[in-house]
Amino acid sequence: MSNRVVEREQEFHDKRFADDSLREGKVGRFYKIANSIQKEYQEQLQRFSAHGKVLEYGCGKGGAVFFLAERGVDVTAIDISTVAIKVASNLALKRGLSNVRFMQMNAEQLDFDEKFNLICGSGILHHLALTKAIHEIKMVLKTGGHAVFIEPLGHNPFINLYRKFTPSIRSQDEHPLLAEDLEMIKSLFPGVEVRYYYLTSLFAAFFAGTVFFNRLLLILETIDKGLLKLPIVRNWAWQVLLIMRV
Q1: pLDDT tops 80 at residue 76
Q2: In this predicted structure, what is the pLDDT of residue 10?
Q3: What is the mean pLDDT of residues 59-77?
Q4: Cα–Cα distance between 152 and 182 in angstroms, integer?
């Protein structure tokens, strides 16, 4: 990214992490359906973090840091937002976690002498110059290491229409991933698995907080498991779980 883009991203996220209320109010109902991808994400982090050092890439106010640190994993966490790093550091102190290191850093220009066994992040790659970011990730991963990320996709026209009408909760330069982005990632790693989540199940978000929500979500997620196996359909998913190996 250019210096101006980096500045815009930092300004946006400093403001966001200082007050998340606007974003949560507008999109909170949709994230209520996202438990399944979060559960799978955490399972993969537990699996791969057992092998050594972990870097959380774009940690925000904590992200996966606390989940891992409370299980005894040593974690380094970076974010471009100084506000996020300050909040996360204070939370770590309150929880008595001494196995966490927070650093303010541009994810496109990693400054580490060490390498990591696992790099993880949620909703961060689509804010970056993707090819550069992926090269940086690969550079600091140990041979045999893994990178695990949750990211939104950018093909579904209905989701994109919603994004168009909610510009205040999005940064100017973010870009949900496209099929060609996934192919680029596959070309740079010897092993990449892409798991697709949420198509018809997005409808359940409108029933969040009602007695129908859990049953409806279960039914729609079952439908999605079949639909998202089809190449012609899966790019319309809302989110993907990326598992990359070097």
Answers
A1: yes
A2: 66
A3: 92
A4: 12
**Would you say 157 and 212 are in contact if contact means Cβ atoms under 8 Å apart?**
no
Output the domain CATH number for residue 208.
3.40.50.150
Name residue 226's amino acid. G
Closest CA to 204 of 212, 195, 193: 212
Q: pTM to 2 decimals?
A: 0.91
CA distance 74 to 118: 11
The residues near 42 (Cβ < 8 Å, ≥ 6 apart) are: 64, 67
- Which range of residues forms the domain containing residue 202? 3-245
Numbers of helices and strands, H then E, in the chain:
10, 7
In this structure, the number of other CB atoms found within 10 A of the CB of residue 63 comes to 22
Rounded (10°) CA dihedral 105, 111, 116, 120 = 30
**Per the structure, how many domains does the chain have?**
1
Whether the Cβ atoms of residue 101 and residue 77 lie closer than 8 Å to each other: yes
